[in-house]
Design the sequence.
């Protein structure tokens, strides 16, 4: 039976991350956004709390907690700013999941462990200039030469690409086979040679406190031992990574809705017009009621997807649905929060405009709003169903956690 109740450990973990994010991250976000300068210490700060490996077993260097713990972390980080959540979700949700789910035991020890321990930062390189929603159109090629592959191509819009030590990159090993010819590679910056170069993309509309990179692959070297899954399994690897990535985006979006609700309630209780709090005005109440409704829906949807992941079941439909509904809710909440604040909301003094700009990114990445709509329709119409994948996520607990959730965070932050 589905059980969405949070344990005391989960609640304690959320409170610890909330306090940490308010103290350590929030003060720097407005300036990072204004100057479009990502915090170079962000990942180290997240690592100081044990977050990079929060949902991975301790035998792979993780904290031994579960997917709900990762969801709570995403929600609390995005409550402060979506850029903080993006750093965690591309690392833990997109990059590390691929190795955990599709890597061999040797790869989990050699490649997942440094990611989970926060000693290496990961990113996810799928999108290309001519291959976004149409993933199967990708052109980056991987050519085998003895014990290595040479990667040639270009990736764009890669979150944290300039900071990442490990880049999970998708390339074709057999262009004639389309999607069936795609393979996944963990590119180690330290081993890739001069053929790997990254550079920041400037002038973004939102998520300005997050790094977004172009990745140039001009004969970048990858040991054959770093191919994740078999040749030709890259599309399946990418899609299962996106299941976890969308879960992170969905749980993060709940944080935006809650942040917008909290700032709107606070303002509506202190701003007076015609001698009364604007919170007494029905049309203002309508906006606040919508945020309150959407927060509960958003929270329930990501919890359901997390519960499925914990029990080792496929969550493709539920993660995609949560991502679609929650990111739309976040955009609506940010727009309404700005409106509740009147002209104040239109200035940099109020964070609502930043939340609105950030929320637009979440309607685009990890499957656009339109793609999620198509997926929802196809599931409903029976054109699509979730078959078991060759490498399912292990049910949680994959091992007994040696420490409670609260202890991990508290010990690491102390
Ligand atoms: C801030 C940011 C960070 C990102 N981070 C990453 C990252 O870390 N790694 C990574 O690999 N990528 C990343 N991306 C890229 C992102 O995943 C792509 O932008 C996204 O998949 C859409 O691709 P596209 O931009 O090429 O749009 P297109 O695919 O060209 O889509 C254009 C329009 O057509 C619509 N459309 C396309 N196909 C369909 C369809 N079948 N049915 C209906 N409508 C359709 C789309 O919804 C959209 O409105 C990031 C993007 C942004 C903005």
Sequence:
């Amino acid at each position: 039976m589905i059980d969405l109740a949070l344990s005391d450990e989960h609640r304690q973990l959320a409170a610890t991350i909330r306090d940490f994010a308010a103290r350590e991250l929030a003060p720097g976000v407005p300036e990072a956004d204004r100057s479009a300068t990502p915090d170079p210490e962000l990942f180290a700060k997240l690592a100081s709390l044990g977050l990079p490996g929060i949902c991975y077993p301790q035998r792979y260097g993780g904290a031994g907690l579960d997917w709900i713990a990762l969801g709570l972390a995403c929600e609390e980080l995005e409550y402060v700013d979506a850029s903080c959540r993006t750093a965690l979700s591309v690392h833990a949700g997109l990059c590390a999941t691929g190795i955990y789910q599709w890597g061999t035991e040797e790869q989990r020890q050699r490649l997942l462990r440094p990611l989970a321990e926060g000693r290496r930062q990961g990113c996810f390189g799928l999108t290309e200039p001519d291959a976004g929603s149409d993933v199967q159109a990708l052109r980056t090629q991987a050519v085998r030469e003895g014990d290595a592959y040479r990667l040639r191509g270009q990736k764009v819009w890669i979150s944290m690409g300039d900071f990442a030590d490990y880049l999970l990159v998708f390339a074709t090993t057999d262009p004639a086979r389309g999607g069936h010819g795609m393979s996944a590679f963990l590119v180690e910056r330290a081993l890739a040679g001069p053929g790997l170069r990254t550079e920041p993309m400037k002038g973004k509309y939102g998520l300005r406190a997050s790094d977004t990179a172009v990745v140039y692959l001009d004969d970048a070297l990858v040991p054959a031992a770093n191919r994740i899954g078999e040749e030709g399994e890259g599309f399946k690897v990418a899609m299962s990574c996106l299941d976890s990535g969308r879960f992170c985006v969905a749980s993060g979006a709940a944080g935006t809705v809650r942040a917008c609700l909290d700032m709107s309630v606070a303002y509506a209780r202190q701003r007076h017009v015609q001698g009364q709090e604007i919170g007494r005005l029905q049309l203002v109440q309508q906006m606040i009621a919508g945020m309150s409704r959407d927060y509960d829906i958003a929270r329930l949807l990501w919890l359901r997807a997390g519960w499925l992941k914990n029990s080792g079941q496929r969550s493709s439909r539920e993660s995609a649905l949560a991502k679609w509904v929650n990111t739309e809710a976040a955009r609506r909440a940010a727009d309404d929060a700005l409106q509740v604040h009147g002209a104040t909301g239109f200035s940099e003094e109020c964070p609502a405009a930043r939340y609105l700009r950030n929320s637009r990114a979440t309607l685009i990445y990890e499957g656009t709003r339109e793609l999620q709509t198509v997926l929802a329709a196809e599931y409903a119409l029976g054109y699509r169903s979730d078959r078991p994948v060759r490498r399912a996520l292990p049910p949680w607990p994959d091992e007994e956690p040696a420490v409670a959730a609260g202890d991990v965070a508290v010990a690491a932050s102390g």
Observations:
- Confidence is low (pLDDT under 50) at residues 401-414.
- The two ends are 37 Å apart (CA to CA).
- The chain has 13 helices and ten strands.
